[in-house]
Amino acid sequence: MHLSIVKISSKSIVFNTAYFKKEVSSLIVLKSEREIQAMHESGKILAACHREIAKLIQPGVTTWEIEEFVEAYLKKHGAKPEQKGYKGYKYATCASINEEICHGFPRKTPLKSGDIVTIDMVVNYNGALSDSAWTYPVGKVSKETEHLLAVTKESLYRAIEVAVAGNRIGDIGHAIQSYVEAEGFSVVRDFIGHGIGNVIHEDPQVPHYGLPHKGLRLKEGMVFTIEPMVNVGTYEAVRDANGWTASTADGKYSAQYEHTLAITKNGPIILTEQ
């Protein structure tokens, strides 16, 4: 679940996903090994849930059925859907279909062959949070859509490779943007990755675009999400009247893959690896 940035004059104001104004604290909370391990346990539940979701995705299923499955799965494993009730959000998952970039509502409309759907969730397990989104193809999708999904996923892992102590936030964004644009796609600017701990959104902010060797230096103990949203056409987004859902301005497909990771002395640890 991402931060949204809106430019007002020369100052960046950060909005939460319901677009309520909120200044993000400049304090970065470094996590201990114990805290990272607790978040990893949360991430294991989230990853296992995604593996089960993958088995459910087929033409005819609804994202409402996936929503109900996730609620039941998390309850069975002693976890809670952290985003449900967050600033008024009503669901355990975000379920974004085709041109929807993020924050799509679960619904009772059946998925069709050729669709793609991104399921995004934040899991709370004993107070430790994890956050991961995954785009799933439904039935048979086009070659262009296959390429979109492959490039988006690869951009995530390229970014994780450079997420090491001593590098900078800009190195992450540059790894994504340079690769994605070379493949003919665009990187969404309006939604970015974020720190996470015992609340969903912390510093640092993690854009998926930018210049290498610029920005905040990465330190051991940082835990944040990298969650590139990649579009077939323009990177520009439009907001739905519901106040949450964002879609591509040109109506073309958008994909997203997201992991929560921790920066350690031995390199990045993916806390939500499937």
**Gyration radius over CA:** 17 Å
Helix content class: 25-40%
Class computed from helices, strands and strand pairing: alpha+beta
CATH superfamily: Creatinase/methionine aminopeptidase superfamily
| Straight-line distance between termini | 18 Å
Beta-strand content bin: 25-35%
Q: Average pLDDT across residues?
A: 92
How many structural domains does the protein architecture include? 1
Question: Helix and strand string, N-terminal first?
Answer: EEHHEEEEEHHEEEEEEEEEE
Shape: globular
Reading off the top of the CATH hierarchy, the class is best stated as Alpha Beta
Strand segment count: 17
Number of helices: 4
Largest sheet: 4 strands, antiparallel
Question: Key features?
Answer:
alpha+beta, 274 residues, 4-stranded antiparallel beta sheet, single chain, 26% helix, Creatine Amidinohydrolase
Would you mind describing this structure in some detail?
With 274 residues, the protein is α+β, with helices and mostly antiparallel strands. The chain has a single domain (25-270), classed as Alpha-Beta Complex (Creatine Amidinohydrolase). 26% of the residues lie in helices and 28% in strands. It is built from four helices and 17 strands. A four-stranded antiparallel β-sheet has the order 2-1-9-10. Helix 3 (143-161) packs antiparallel against helix 4 (169-182). The longest helix has 24 residues, at 33-56. The chain is globular, with a radius of gyration of 17 Å.
